[in-house]
Amino acid sequence: MYFTGDFGPHSRHVYEKFVKLKEPTMGLDRVYIYDTTLRDGAQTSGVDFGPMDKQAIAQELDQLGVDYIEGGWPGANPTDNTFFDNLPPLKTARITAFGMTRRAGRSASNDPGLNAVMATAANVLCMVGKASGYHVDVALGIERSENLAMIKDSVAYAASKMDEVLFDAEHFFDGYKADPDFAMACLTAALDGGARWVVLCDTNGGTLPFEIEDIVGKVITEIPGDQIGIHCHNDTENAVANSLVAVRAGVRMVQGTLNGLGERCGNANLVSIIPTLMLKMGFETGVSAESLTTLRQISTQLDERLNRAPNHHRPYVGDSAFAHKGGLHVSAVEKDPPSYEHVPPETVGNRRVILVSDQAGRSNLLARFREIGLDVDPDDPRLSELLETVKTKEMNGYAYDGAEASFELLARRTLGDVPEYFRCTTFRVLNERRWIDDDTVVSLTEATVKLALQNGTEMAVAEGNGPVNALDAALRKVLLPLYPSLSDLRLIDYKVRILTPGDATAAITRVIIESTDGSGAHWSTLGVSANVIDASYNALRDSIVFKLLRDGIAKSDAST
After folding, report:
1. In what order do the strands lie in the sheet with 456-464?
2. Which CATH class is domain 27-287?
3. Are strands 353-354 and 323-324 parallel, antiparallel or unpaired?
4. pTM value?
5. Is 27 left (phi over 0), alpha (psi -120 to 50) or beta?
6. Confidence check: pLDDT of 391 > 80
7. Residue limits of CATH 3.30.160.270 in the chain
8. Domain 423-550 has CATH 3.40.30.10
9. Distance CA 532, CA 511 (A)
10. Each residue of 265-276: pLDDT tens digit?
11. Where in the chain is the domain with CATH 3.20.20.70?
12. For 477-524, what is each residue's pLDDT tens digit?
């Protein structure tokens, strides 16, 4: 699944190489992957890793095949201390401790901070130091000669006790633009001290790709590329591009994070960089072709761990990365994938998705049917009926390209392929808001449902934290005894969009509910109505029915 030749936008032979080539092509240039998710990623607003999170993520990164995993800064906080006191067992990746060079006026052996980062079971150390004359003059307020001595002394001391030492040259690119001789002197000091890698850091994320390529090209004339790394931030949306042009210019280590986590605008996204290096640029990494197929899973797992909604438009691994919507487009993509998909989706663990919308044609429907296992005659007149139904519904606010489960139910119902597991004859939702005093308010929601079943009608009443939760609880009271598989159904996201904002509080709303179960599968369902509770019920009902259908549950004898 590696590519070594030229890649044009419509090169079919290239696409076929992706599919047919199963083992890495030997002899390619090797690029080392250094992951900083556990440290830089933890600086993301709203992200808070616990020790168990760090252990689990480290093991996932190891299984992927990254070379280095930066675990954090020992001595900086209790979480990092706990992690380094209980390092997870890894197969190939090397856990790296992070720290900084010695303080001015101290010897390296006498610096408590430097010694703390080396007092762990990690055998690799990455230390950061200034590589910008301006920051040495202003931020540190020391002589530049002292900064060079701090770098060399610290690296030499660490190299005498650790297996491997890296030097992160902070603000390198800004420093090089202002004073290239001093910036290079900082790198030389680290190498003279015994650093295995010197890493060029675009610390404020402001350097552009053409500048990166130019400066790296000049550095390479003095330092071999297999001793140089790149560390980019994403403040101009160029972190991935900057990392790739640095590799193109000669560096052989890339630092970044999963999903581009990091402070401010984030760090270089390894989820985009790794497949680009392997599939587009022909480089060998520690990630095998087989491991690359787990990339989407690892990206999604991180979002789940952080309780963050995945970015559906994330390159390579997002739900929409290989989603096709237009009818003519769909016809073409199935005949000629390389013209519309830059790599086969399965190489990164993703899949092609055929969306159905008011732009869809018969080819969209047939392609979608194949995906869900429906065998339909292309000349079946019900296809025209379904297509018109979809277009009419989307005119009224439905959006099936974001709720594939609801589309599948609509299609199967049109074809007479969905059992009527239950039928709700009526439901009522009451919301009570009670003021105990000026500072205390109690809100209580109660839902009542009546469901028609084969042996009659059953009614249930339940309370919940809001109308959707109360409706869900009331429905389960009736349905769980009939359909026990619903016990692991969970609603994990609920979105409401106002479709007619000019109607103010009388606006039509679209509700999308995302659900999951014990298998880890996710699906989305929707409802549209001028009444947000009615729209919510429709989306909730579809979620329940889809779960039963997906599990292969036959209609209960007790249902109509």
Report:
1. 423-437, 440-453, 456-464
2. alpha beta
3. parallel
4. 0.70
5. left
6. no
7. 423-550
8. no
9. 7
10. 999 999 999 999
11. 27-287
12. 999 999 999 999 999 888 888 888 878 878 889 899 999 998 878 898
